[in-house]
Design goal:
Layout lengths: L1 H18 L3 H11 L5 H11 L6 H9 L5 H22 L4 H21 L2
């Protein structure tokens, strides 16, 4: 399973570089739907993964409450770092209107899943 957290980080970095999104729209739903984390654990883990440079104080609080998976957060952070570079390179080849539509469809699909799937 540890390798899957690294893959999640890579995919998140790719989307981060490509669409400017990441933690809330990619990792949190993935940790909840694919890895069985509860919402608190998912949010706490992504905050820990994003400590450099953001989220330190929130991550500490989530950690103190027992809602952070340190191993998952570390692997996601490594993947996010590398994937962000490749996403930023890829986005240069996508026209603005297409990118806008991809972003909108992605957010719509995630929002529908969050609303209608238990």
């Amino acid at each position: 399973m540890n390798a899957l957290f690294l893959v999640l980080g890579l995919v998140t970095g790719l989307f981060g570089g490509l669409l400017g999104i990441g933690g809330a729209t990619v990792v949190v739903p993935a940790l909840v739907f694919l890895f069985g984390f509860n919402q608190h654990q998912a949010q706490g883990t992504i905050l820990a993964a994003m400590i450099p440079p953001i989220g330190l104080l929130a991550a500490i609080r989530y950690y103190q409450a027992g809602h952070v998976n340190i191993a998952a957060a570390a692997l996601i952070a490594v993947g996010f770092f590398i994937g962000g570079y490749f996403g930023a390179r890829l986005v240069e080849y996508i026209p603005d209107l297409m990118l806008k539509r991809i972003f909108g469809i992605f957010l719509l699909l995630i929002s529908l899943r969050m609303i209608f799937v238990k």
